[in-house]
Amino acid sequence: MKIxxxxxxxxxxxxxxxxxxxxxxNDTTKKEYTIFGMFxxxxxxxxxxxxxxxxxxTGVTLKSKISQNAVDEQEAFNLMVASGDLPxxxxxxxxxxxxxxxxxxxxxxxxxxIDEHAPNIKKFWEDRPDLKRVVTTYDxxxxxxxxxxxxxxxxxxxLRKDWLDKLGLPVPKTMExxxxxLVAFKTxxxxxxGLADEIPWFQRSSDLNNTLKLLLNLxxxxxxxxxxxxxxxVFELNRLEFKxxxxxxxxxxxxxxxxxxxxTRDFATTRDYMFGNNLGGYTFDWASTAYYVDSLKDTIxxxxxxxxxxxxxxxxxxxxxARNVYAGGWGISSTAKDPIGIIKYxxxxxxxxxRRLWNFGIEGDQYTMVDGEPIFTDKVLKAxxxxxxxxxxxxxxxxxxxxxxxxxxxxxxxxxxxGYKLYIDEDVVQSSIGFAxxxxxxxxxxxxxxxxxxxxxxTAEMIQKWIMGxxxxxKDWDSFIKRLDEIGLQRAIxxxxxxxxxxxxx
Length: 506
Ligand code: CA
Description:
disordered N terminus
């Protein structure tokens, strides 16, 4: 086994150095395909042990075809498409990009190939027709094998547990109780320094759009669309619930319950600042937040967090903010010479071994089998960042795959494990359908994008004004609704409803 591994490595190195030609590889079962792929700034690397192991099992070696200086995936993608020089396999983190390339003729339809040559993917889609539907385009073709995250739960509601305990407050269950919690954080000095310096609610956010999404999320409203199988297409920002939420947000902002700098905070530093200085009380954030419990235990004695369910509004408890159903994937270019070989390789990653290899890394190094289950070794579990430890060997490098929640569970903080269980058991995270899953002709996507951009910039400007008290939503309401219609809201609704109907039928 070792010898074969070295042989493959040797061949890979020889090919990499360009010292030999493809034809000199005598073994006819060995195949080599070129790939364009960059994920999280990581350019595909054929030397990653995970892909070398896959090579041993499938005979397929992938060779990266992307400038090693590339820093931006989409920029590099656009350059590659414009050059017309396509590799065999193309990965992208944005599903829409692959669909567009497919309908433009740059990728080949995969559904028939999968039916005939990819039993694992075929079986997976037979078990989960909903996950097949989200990748079917308006012309009925499937152009990508997607990367599917394992669960809907991503970010969760997080509170300072030690502050609650100190003030003798219960875990808030309703919106009224939650509001009272924030008021107590602001007025009862839970950090104990004699100053009303607490910032009851803070968020870290990469852009304005995201900030608005996070603020409205607490009030169980999506910014701007909510498209679900149960309710179809709903535009959220002309509803009375939205108006009520803005009134509340404006009041809370005025009362100092929301970070006064919420619209300008930096994504990279906010969470460190708020927790590290013992200032922030509540936030809605991802699993990594839990690690502050460990990192701050010496500097802020008693520092503790808890994950709680969304505060109920009229008995409703919903988190509209969910992970995408799928986030890109990979496809086969129209210039690829061996589509059957490639689809078989894609299929390997949906087999039990392929999926385990991708999720857990190399047996004996990143994981060992315990009672028939892969369990991470200390090398991963005790690493400063378990995920980075996995990236080093090529595991978790996103491409066409179904991610295993067990991988995430094993490397998660206990606080998050329990929190996620709560969210899953109570089924509070909404299953939204992203725009990319709706099926539209390319010219309609262009038309829609223009309306959407204008809706976004106008509503973002108004919401910010209302929350910060520069204007009043009740006074502006009629003109707001009128302006939305002028921008083309009705046409955007029509387009989304058309796309939704095709989606449901497919
Ligand atoms: Ca204080």
